[in-house]
Amino acid sequence: MRFEGKAGLVTGAGSGIGRATAKGFAQRGGAVAVADINADNASRVAAEIIAAGGKAIAIVADVTKAADVEMMTSRTTQEFGRLDFLHNNAFGFAAMPGVSAVAATADTDDRMWNATLEVGLTAVFRAIKRAVPVCARRAAVRS
Q: Can you give the pLDDT at residue 7?
């Protein structure tokens, strides 16, 4: 499948599955917004895509903040003139002093649980809520 003329936004794109998704999309001709909470990682992945001949921008965003979700959607649309897909990949556990990220349920406090829900559910909802109208406008224009 080719993605020439398409633009996407990948959250958590600074490493792991998000990085692979962003790079794969770009390798198939799409422009991609590499969004990550870690500025160095987002910039590195965007630079890798550009060095390989693709189109990418790095966006530093915390998906638990509604304003950041709005900003990353707007920046993607402003930079590429469109938004065709959103890959909600960002996920992680809040840091808990003295407890590893893979802590057993019994060791997980409410703060860590709430942060997990914020990244894994609420942020996904917020991003979809903002991306769908942008994608729908594109579809309506083509009709």
A: 96
